[in-house]
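Subject: Insulinase family protein

B.,
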Amino acid sequence: MQLLKSPVLSLLFLAVPVWAWAQLPDDFDLEGPLPVDPEVRVGELDNGLRYYIRENSRPENRVSLRLVVNAGSLQEEDDQRGIAHFLEHMAFNGTKNFRKQELVNFLESIGMRFGQHLNASTSFDQTIYKLEVPWDDPDVVDKAFLILEDWASNISLDPFEIEAERGVIVEEWRSGQGASQRIRDQQYPLVYYNSRYAMRLPIGSMFVVQNAPAERFVDFYKKWYRPNLMSVIAVGDFDAEEVERQIITRFSRLENPEGAPERVNSSVPDHEETLFSIVSDPEITGMSAVVYLKLDPASDQTALDYRQHLIERIYFSLLNQRLGERTLDATPPYINASVGSTRLGREKRAYAMSAGLFQGRVEEGLRYLAAEVARASEAGFSQSELDRVKADMIRGMDRAYEERENTQSSVFAAEYTRAFTVDEPIPGIKLERDMTRAFLADLDVAEVNRVGDAFKQESNRVILFTAPEGEGYELPSEDQLLAAIDSGRAMDLGAYVDDVSDAPLLAEMPVPGEIVSETYHEEVDVHDWTLSNGARVIIKSTDFKNDQVLMSAFSEGGSSLVLDDEFIPSLTTTMLLGEAGVGPFNTIQLEKKLAGKALRLSPSIGATSESLSGSSSPQDLEDFFKLLYLQITQPNEKDLAKAFESVKNRLSEVVANRSKSPSAVFQDAIEEAYYGDHPRHQPLNLGRLEEMDARLSLEIFKDRFQNAGDFVFVFVGTIDLESFREQVKTYVASLPTRGGEPEKAIALDDKPKSGRLSVDVKKGLEEKANVRLFFTGDAEWSPENRYALAFARGLLNIRMREVLREENGGVYGVSVFGSLGRIPEGSYSTGFGFSCDPENAEQLVQLGLFEIISLQEDGPREANVQKVKELHVREHERGLKENSFWMRNLVGVVSEGRDFSEILSFPDRVKAFDPGEAQGAAKRYFDMKNLLIAYLWPEYGE
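Prediction pasted inline below.
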């Protein structure tokens, strides 16, 4: 068996010391194929169809289903370019047992959402159909498998429906057009040099999409949708025996067509010379460079392959840490940089080096990127660096193992999809954890260092460079790019200094406070504590995740309490302090201090509140609380000046060309129409960055966060209440407080203008219009009003999709949005938006407005009312078993002063909801008297 095709990696593999796997069982076969996870049932029918079945109770009472077809755009003939993807659309537009829209209507009627629970995707090599359904109704189960069977063999391909869908495909293509796609169109022929990939983008040729006759669809469908190229995947809260019977019964009757062509993977040929793509674009806002070093794919079938994969991951992690550290320099050589491995189809992969570059410093950025990669390749990494990454990897694998019973079904379904399409092994998390621990236990740093030899490769190399068009952006030549890389390789950066600190995370323990009152809300199993410093702590202990505790802390006020000329320092406060670090640790030292621990914490300052969000493993809670205490009480002032220079340098490059982006110009125009020259609604540009002030940002941070009496801390997850009690008293009750009345956000003179407004912007090269409609105004906030608006939004989402997409083929997608604000004053903001052919924009706007008026005047359709109700009940049913759901709802209940019991009574309120309230919400919150219509037209438009 040829395990590795790459000569460099073959040498690496031969150097493996035999004692590295001593911790695995004596009879474990290192060189044979990895076993299949015993928790998954894998079978193959006589016709060649393969199936994967796994019982899994997360989420409860749900099943994730997949039909995977091992064929995609690479299987198309020249006159079929786009047919594979088009077929995916047609699967939702009529089958033997489901006429057009019946399938979507059925799924919506059982509380599933189109796009989230019913979807499909087409790539170069495969087409995947996804379906999630409840498992509590046998009729639903039967229909779900009937849908899969119809997709496999009974798509109608009605010529009339094909004609109707052409416009949707064109709009999907149009929505992806822009600077990024123009750049890719120039780069792909080099990345996929002399291969079929460069000529078979899944979206296809719009000439074919708009003109191909139905016979061409039928030919592709019959030729490539066949059982020996298919897999059915089912993961969920079900009986595996019953599911297997369904699959065998339904799919055994499928037959392979006679004389069908063999399915052959497409290759990406080698090339000795370096290929270059050096391009500019008037809508690109920044410079970047990517260097691809193409390699043959590494085998992943055996334990030794798995070990090699771990070594490669370690190398990239180590190198990326060094590259990231250099971005924290006061004057960094590049904005960002990274290395990694990526697939280029099934027959080729590549190592990639990439960097975001500064104007006027292109060669410097590339030189430092190449120098850092070369230093790692020549001198290698230190044992201390390796030990930290190993600790993180082992901890990550241990956490995955601890959560094995809580893994979502969709995660398993994606894994089994790869098992079918690219033969990825599925040994199961237990064996993966055991192999990781065994292989990393005695891993020698010299073996890791040898991965860097691959970066010395000069054949099979592609260098991609992109830049904005404009003054100061002269494109480098091929020779200049090569010279920068070569000089970087020869550059002496000196020995790497591993900047670590031996100081304890928290040198001096705080004086604990007390819990002065406790309330237990039995109905929702929530503990409610008030602390001696005035802080409030809400705790819900759950068993949804074995290794997760979530935290959200919030206080009203935010940037509304700073002066207008302090707004930019407020806006950049947490960015600066996040880079400076906490306590005696700079950011680099802190990251290394926390190696092997599963915790994160980040502060933010919004318009009306300041908050901290984070998460921790239960076993790391002590360190999490120490970090929380440090973050609030001891921001790192000594490294603030350096962080300020670094952040300002990188932000300056990011915002310098913001005006080249059509979407940014469009957004700025909308802001100007609503707010005029208000200082808090001006675009972030180089002039505004001069308002940054490190010392003022520090003072704002202290003012906003060092008053615990204003804060509510919410914790959800695996919490041992007794030990948690002591941690809260030590690290939260001890936080500083100023006393007095809780602060309130204040209303600023920045309400959006009322009346009928319009925005017309001409910016962009593509024949595409972007349309946004906004309704704004004052409103009385209440939970009832908020839900009525959410219900109206759900109704409008259904109707606008049906009318603008399905009936008129004018859009790929339409988004209806809406929210009801409470702080500092009641207000609403709603609307809808889409992209489309400029010639159709105004007509589609009118169709959308007509649907709003229809809801306002005629009320909702009963079928759609039931769909929205069922969707809301099903989402609540699923959410009750998720920590994030409880976090979101507990924060909402506490901040809004509502009763905890409302979280559980939601389904009853949904079922009792009067649809007339949704009609009333449409009248109040989609008020045609306060409407802004904004168009972003292509520059050539009249």
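The longest strand covers residues 769-778.

T.
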